[in-house]
């Protein structure tokens, strides 16, 4: 059995199980999100852990805590979002529970299966590090959406879509599964998630700052916020892209999704960043729920 330390638990039978909790004010904001969007976004996050294990999702079990007087229409809307994602990824909604609370909370248990799970351990010296899609789009989209009483400009739609609907890269994971030696999803920020790969694989990972895939729209948002775009994308989480190591070369596009080589695996320990000819230790800068390092808002 694969237990604590990976994206999900893997039983001896090949069943893969993960549980995630999502709370209003921490993971989502109803001031700019509908109940349907909340359901979809949280489902994407929960199922992403199954995908990051190289597994195929099969069932999602839903437990809800609802504020008093939440009308039935809002609950149906929430489930429409959940079911939309499940339908797209080929899994079923398998029931759950509902209780009353002072704010909206979703606890989602995702179940899948695989005969050969992809773990955080497994990267070896000589492997390359790859990431799907782009970095920082979801967090940049959140920043755009959180601006009070301002319409989303057309150029930012790609960012807000990734924040609201970060569909896991299931087909990419299944297609590339034979060449992947280690994998995780970018839920907490690439500096944190890549550090997990390095720690669990007991290797040194060096990221190339010049290769990080970043949309021009993300740079536009960070510039407006007075932020350095590289620091931003290294810490920005909830893109739910796949970050993986592999020895063999990988196509630049897989199932319509860009895949970028962003680093390498070496003997040693820790996460490092190569920039302008210098290599420096890269601290984990992603979200920490216990310190609320990067709260919503």
What is the 3D shape?
A: globular
Level-1 CATH class name of the largest domain: Alpha Beta
The end-to-end span amounts to: 39 Å
CATH architecture of the largest domain: Alpha-Beta Complex
Classified in CATH, the superfamily of the largest domain is PurM-like C-terminal domain
Q: Unreliable stretches, pLDDT < 50, 5 or more residues?
A: none
Tell me the structural class: alpha+beta
Query: Nearest-angstrom radius of gyration?
Result: 19 Å
**Percent helix:** 25-40%
SSE blueprint and pairings:
Blueprint: E1 9-10, E2 15-23, H1 35-51, E3 56-66, H2 72-89, E4 92-100, E5 105-113, E6 128-132, H3 137-145, H4 157-164, H5 170-176, E7 182-185, H6 190-201, E8 204-208, H7 216-224, H8 229-235, E9 242-246, E10 253-254, E11 257-266, E12 270-275, E13 278-281
Parallel strand pairs: 3-4, 8-12
Antiparallel strand pairs: 1-2, 2-5, 3-5, 6-9, 6-11, 7-9, 8-11, 10-11, 12-13
Helix pairs in contact: 1-2, 3-4, 3-7
Description of the structure:
There is one protein chain. It contains eight helices and 13 strands. It is 29% helix and 27% strand. The mean pLDDT is 93. The longest helix has 18 residues, at 72-89. The protein has two domains: 9-113, PurM-like, N-terminal domain (60s Ribosomal Protein L30, Chain: A, 2-Layer Sandwich); 128-281, Phosphoribosyl-aminoimidazole Synthetase, Chain A, domain 2, CATH 3.90.650.10.
Structure summarized in a few sentences:
The chain has about 300 residues and is α+β, with helices and mostly antiparallel strands.
């Amino acid at each position: 059995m694969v237990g604590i330390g990976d994206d999900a638990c893997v039983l001896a039978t090949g069943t893969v199980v993960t549980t995630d909790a999502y709370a209003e004010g921490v993971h989502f904001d109803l001031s700019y999100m509908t109940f349907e969007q909340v359901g979809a976004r949280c489902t994407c996050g929960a199922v992403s852990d199954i995908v990051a294990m190289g597994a195929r999702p099969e069932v999602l079990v839903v437990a809800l805590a609802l504020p008093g007087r939440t009308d039935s229409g809002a609950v149906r809307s929430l489930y429409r979002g959940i079911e939309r994602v499940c339908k797209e990824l080929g899994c079923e909604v398998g029931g759950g529970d509902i209780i009353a609370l002072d704010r909206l909370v979703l606890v989602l248990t995702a179940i899948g299966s695989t005969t050969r799970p992809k773990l955080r351990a497994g990267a070896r010296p000589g492997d390359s590090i790859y990431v799907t899609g782009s970095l920082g789009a979801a967090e940049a989209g959140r920043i755009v959406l959180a601006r009070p009483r301002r319409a989303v400009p057309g150029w930012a739609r790609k960012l807000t879509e990734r924040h609201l609907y970060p569909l896991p890269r299931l087909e990419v994971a299944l297609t590339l599964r034979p060449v992947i030696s280690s994998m995780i999803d970018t839920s907490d920020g690439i500096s944190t998630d890549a550090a997990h790969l390095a720690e669990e694989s007991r290797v040194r990972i060096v990221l190339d700052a010049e290769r990080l895939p970043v949309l021009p729209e993300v740079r536009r948002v960070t510039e407006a916020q007075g932020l350095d775009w590289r620091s931003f994308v290294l810490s920005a989480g909830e893109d739910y892209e796949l970050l993986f190591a592999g020895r063999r070369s990988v196509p630049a596009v897989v199932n319509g999704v860009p895949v970028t080589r962003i680093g390498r695996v070496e003997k040693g320990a820790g996460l490092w960043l190569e920039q302008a000819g210098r290599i420096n230790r890269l601290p984990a800068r992603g979200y920490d729920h216990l310190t609320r390092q990067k709260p919503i808002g």
